Amino acid sequence: MLSRSFYLHPDVMFLARELLGKTLCTRIDGKRTSGMITETEAYAGVTDKASHAFGGRRTKRTEVMYHRGGTAYIYLCYGMYSLFNVVTNEEGIPHAILIRGIIPLEGIDVMKKRRRIDKIGKGFSNGPGKVAEALGIHFSHTGTDLAEIPSDPMKPAIWIEEVTQKPSPEHILSTPRIGVGYSGEDAKLPYRFLLKKK
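^ that's the sequence the OP posted. Answer follows.
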């Protein structure tokens, strides 16, 4: 499991790249599922017009973004989709990384049931709403500590594990983020990171 210190790194773009290839794990309703992170987006807090915390905005929903790094920020999109973000940096600095894609690894039958799909295909977990649904992540889990797993096996847990072989820089692409046209010039920033398909 990644340590708290990993999440406290001050550079959200660096961490968004570093998360690629790592394993996102959940234990929901006592069932473990996991997937390799293949796509992320960085949101640089109060100075980033695409961030929910731009300009120091604080609401009941976004307050968790100001927690210390290693906290889950999960919000409901379009009233339908839970989107999972990793809060980073020190307490009071609302940086966050949206997990946009995974490759399923463990608990595949459970993930298929959650997604109501019979087999793993190209589009199974290639969007943030699909990622959360497959892994059983719900917006009610916002605020979950990613650096600690509850001892009670029936308590929800979300964490990220290191891998032995990290992707090399030449296998990582950076592009503008998706769906943030409202943020003007900031929509063009290359804050989306993804693994090249082999």
